[in-house]
Prior knowledge:
This protein is of the alpha/beta class. It is 31% helix and 32% strand. The chain is built from six helices and 13 strands.
Amino acid sequence: MKPFIMDHPLIQHKITHVRDKNTGAKEFRELISEIAMLMCYEATRDLPLEEVEIETPMMKCKSKVISGRKLAFVPVLRAGLGMVDGVLKLVPAAKVGHIGLYRDHDTHLPVEYYCKLPSDIGEREVIVLDPMVATGGSVVDAVRLVKEHGAKHVKLMCVIAAPEGLALMEKEHPDVQVYCAALDEGLNEDAYILPGLGDAGDRIFGTK
Length: 208
Ligand code: PRP
Ligand code: URA
């Protein structure tokens, strides 16, 4: 499935600030959360609606509410945690699962260390959250894990992606719609995204 690249001016403006190396941890966190909230608006555009009858102070009328499957957000630790606040502002009733993965320094391959998902994940629309898709190994594994736990409807929201990572997602999970705020040039020899924003986990949590 073709990735959906978000070109909304508000998102592009905030991306410029998160890329800037002079942006400190507090502002970085706030921006990632705001970008996630704006992206979630688009990623939930196809949620099904049903009509209900309500009474306004003036009269009875028919109006729409979200129907059908409920949502689950699944951040990939650590950096995906930075997106959770933003998406929960829009969908406060969603459940949240967690997948812990880190990239091995030498092989750049993901190593799984944690997985806790809602027991009813099979009945939910699942949106996996990770701000960075570099080689794509981490999100491909995260999506595989949620599918192995029964998820049938999965989307991925990332802030910055490299073409290599999106190509791997398309190859391994062609059924998953990817929402991405910026498609960058490529990877350096350490598999970091160029121009990217550096190490998202370190910048969110002030480590390093
Ligand atoms: C980062 C990022 C992704 C992964 C992307 O996490 O949040 O999960 O790297 O790289 P990939 O597409 O090549 O797999 P990292 O491994 O640095 O872990 P951290 O968030 O715990 O620091
Ligand atoms: N993980 C990050 O946080 N940044 C990159 O550029 C690549 C992987």
